[in-house]
Write a structure and sequence with these properties.
heterodimer, A: 263 residues, alpha/beta, 6-stranded mixed sheet, B: 268 residues, mainly alpha
Chain lengths: 263, 268
Amino acid sequence: MQATERRTETEDTASAPRDDALALEVASLSHAFGDRAALSDVSFSLRRGERMVLLGLNGAGKTTLFSLITRLYDHRGGAIRIFGREIKEQPSEALARIGVVFQQSTLDLDLTVAQNLFYHASLHGIARSVAAERMKHEIERVGLSDRLRDKVRELSGGQRRRVEIARALLHRPQLLLLDEATVGLDIASRQFLIDHVRRLCAEENLAVLWATHLIDEVETTGKVIVLHRGKVLAQGAVPDVIRTAGAPSMRAAFDALTREPKG
Amino acid sequence: MKAIHYYRCLAGIVRREGLRFLHQRGRFISALVRPLVWLLIFAAGFRFVLGVSIIPPYETYVPYEVYIAPGLIGMILLFQGMQSSLSMVYDREMGSMRTLMVSPLPRWFLLVAKLLAGVVVSVLQAYVFLAIAYFWEIEPPPLGYLTVLPALILAGMMLGALGLLLSSAIRQLENFAGVMNFVIFPMFFASSALYPLWHVQEASLPLYYVCEANPFTHAVELIRFALYEQFDLQSALVVLGWLVVFMGLAIYGYDPARGLIARRAAAE
């Protein structure tokens, strides 16, 4: 599929995405839960076709950041813009352009794969006939065409993740968010997922924000943001981050950046 | 977003609720068995203990089973409302609630759609109950089966909205047992579902006022009158008023900026 074909079903109600706009722009974002700061002055941006890894240990604030970008709840300070649309001010236009794979599986185990996908399509106002066509395409790409009528409960963890990827792409988003999508998967499933997302970036000009705590998911030619205790410690092209940290590898750079001062 | 997108979303949420209900046969059976046990055992036992004088909408003395039938329909709606609440809390704990919340449609609409989906299921259960109850001499006038429909929808929405409100406030699935003790049982027993309120008034005036203030009493009376082709304006207005209050608070509870959902995230 060509990048130019990637349009949301509901796009006729909102103006077409501005190509010059950043896919995702997070500016001076801060958020606190009571007195506890969860994110402090977080800023970064992502262009179409870019894959950026959000690297951080458990509790770094990755899931909070995803919750704010997807407006599960509102941020308190700063701005989040998706293709130029502030999430708090134009949530419908912004959310229509985002596909999400959450850390915790969000499939309904009692429903079949097809029923789960149809449900997701309906939440985006997509007609069943259109959804059926897209479903066939997306599920074929993740190699699960023969499992459409099976209940999700009967699928393995890796297969469920593939279904979630297919589901996230059903409404033709232009920005894909994946929160620890490979956690709990075997090597083959994990590699499939990484390759599939890389293809989506390259072939469909999809912007991808990939949150992980696994350093080996950072590609040496890609971009990375290091998030630690709610703060961005470094960001940019991986070689630049390594060089700036004065380390020989990304792993060493990450260790150096997140090391707590003694005493 | 156009009207057609809203319609498709509503249809999808209703379809999912229906599928979940069909897949959970135990839930369907228990939803029916509960009121039937009350009708066939409790009502039979109390038939000669509790006298029911001629009170509107009845034009003559009625057997106790006939009197409690609207209350048992109310019970179906009440339990379904709480079941929806339980499934919302379950969905939130399991993560599938996020699928709903990241939809581009407004959150208030998603909640209303969820409410209507629950009402469709509960109205179907109520009619299945009425069909079975027919064989136990619960025989309202034929037109009553039609005139009761708006009452079932309105009462179902009010009780479903209460369920939504509770789901926004309940932090964990384990806390749901408290709902049984502090919401369902008091609402059901402190109402006109099992005994006419004049009986209660004779026994205890404060309890009578509690029953009068109980929204469930008005839901039951609305159904009772509608089943006999009559319209109880006062009950309809009270039920409508509570529906607006419960739904307004539920929408507030799920509001990403102000609601309990955001505050709960703070606590986690």
